[in-house]
Amino acid sequence: MRDEYIREARKIIDDPYILVNVVSRRVKQLRRGSRPLVESLEKLLPEDIALREIIEGKISYELPDAPPAPVWTGSVRSKIN
Fold first, then answer.
1. Where are the alpha helices (DSSP H) in the chain?
2. CB neighbours (10 Å) of residue 36?
3. pLDDT band for position 81 (50/70/90)?
4. 37: nearest Cα among 55, 14, 12, 17
5. 48 — alpha (psi -120 to 50), left (phi > 0) or beta?
6. pTM
7. Do residues 7 and 44 touch, judged by C-beta distance below 8 A?
8. How many domains does the chain have?
């Protein structure tokens, strides 16, 4: 991967863990035959294509809503002797 692409993509997705996941998923899609969303005059690795797609705003991510906290509806009884 090209360092300059990583730096530019980090400006878009600042959390490195999310960036790795977004790039990883897109690389899998590209390797399975999906067409790149960016054009390049040079031959790029799938990782670099994914980073360029992020930089150019062609792909993004959405975090799922957090599930609600579990609510306990039981009751507590204690015996005092």
1. 3-12, 16-31, 46-55
2. 16
3. low
4. 55
5. alpha
6. 0.77
7. no
8. 1
Cα separation, 9 vs 4, in Å, equals 9
**What six digits make up the tokens of 38?**
């960016």
Contacts of 8 (CB under 8 A, 6+ apart): 51, 55
Residue with tokens 């863990």: 17
Whole domain around residue 11: which residue ranges? 3-55
Round to whole Å and give the CA distance between 79 and 49: 66
Q: Band of the pLDDT at 1, cuts 50, 70, 90?
A: confident
- What was the pLDDT predicted at 76? 60
Is 77 within the bounds of a domain? Answer: no
pLDDT in tens, 16-75: 999 999 999 999 999 999 999 999 999 999 999 999 999 999 998 888 887 777 776 666
Question: Is 63 domain-assigned?
Answer: no
* C-alpha 35: how far from chain center: 19
